[in-house]
Amino acid sequence: MNLGVHRQDFFTPYDEVFDCFDSMGLQEHLLRGIYSYGFEKPSAIQRRGIVPFTKGLDVILQAQSGTGKTATFCSGILQQLDYGMVDQCQALVLAPTRELAQKIKKFMRALGDYLCVEVHACVSGTSVREDQRILSTGVHVVVGTPGRVLEMLRRQALRADCIKHFVLDIADEMLSPGLKHQVGVSSATMTPEVLEISRKFMNKPVRILGKRDELILEGIKQFYVKKKKWNLETLSDLYDMDKPVRRGVYAYDKSTH
Ligand SMILES: Nc1ncnc2c1ncn2[C@@H]1O[C@H](COP(=O)(O)OP(=O)(O)OP(=O)(O)O)[C@@H](O)[C@H]1O
Questions:
Q1: Does ipTM come in above 0.90?
Q2: Using a 6 Å cutoff on CB, does residue 66 contact ligand 1?
Q3: Is the pLDDT of residue 248 over 50?
Q4: Is the pTM of this model over 0.80?
């Protein structure tokens, strides 16, 4: 892959792995949120991806769908927010669809329940005025789709200069340059074009890749789901090999019926 730069100049080397949430230095209320949500052990991408996020490094998360990237960047953001400050939004997550933005919002709220995080989804198809009203009451995090977020920026209901953490989910679909402070990029695929554009606005990011065994597990899961030759037991057994996403198994179960 030719990025026009040497890889070592582009990425910050990072290889720390944390086998449990307790060892990641997360604040107590965030840990309570994570465990209450039902997560017991971090998935492979979380074992490597949460901590660099919490340190404020720019991060590229690259792992297949369903491997726990959303929980990774949500935890990273939740750890760093200044909860005493709600008058300006501190973190922005951009997602390509309303459904995904709503999903991330719910997830962020659930993990940040004990931190009393205020999260709002700015998505098209809802009242612009209501969005403005909610933002004026103060939120810590906005999760939104590009059009509505742009509208909020234009109306100055959202101020880009106050945003300290920015995450672009499904980066291959929606990368655009321009924001400063911490930048996270999360995607199942990372094309040369995405990397080249990332280079322009990321500061020597660490790159966290999904582990091969996790990808294989994901492949097996999708095979079983496609063939409908599965049940919760089968999937739980598969996941027990690495014990990452038991809850995800249940989510999969619901969404395919
Ligand atoms: N450590 C964990 N333990 C148990 N379940 C988990 C864990 N991390 C994530 N999950 C669950 O796995 C499922 C997939 O996680 P998540 O949405 O974070 O994956 P993703 O990689 O962001 O997927 P996508 O790329 O499709 O957005 C969710 O149902 C989530 O609740």
A1: yes
A2: yes
A3: no
A4: no
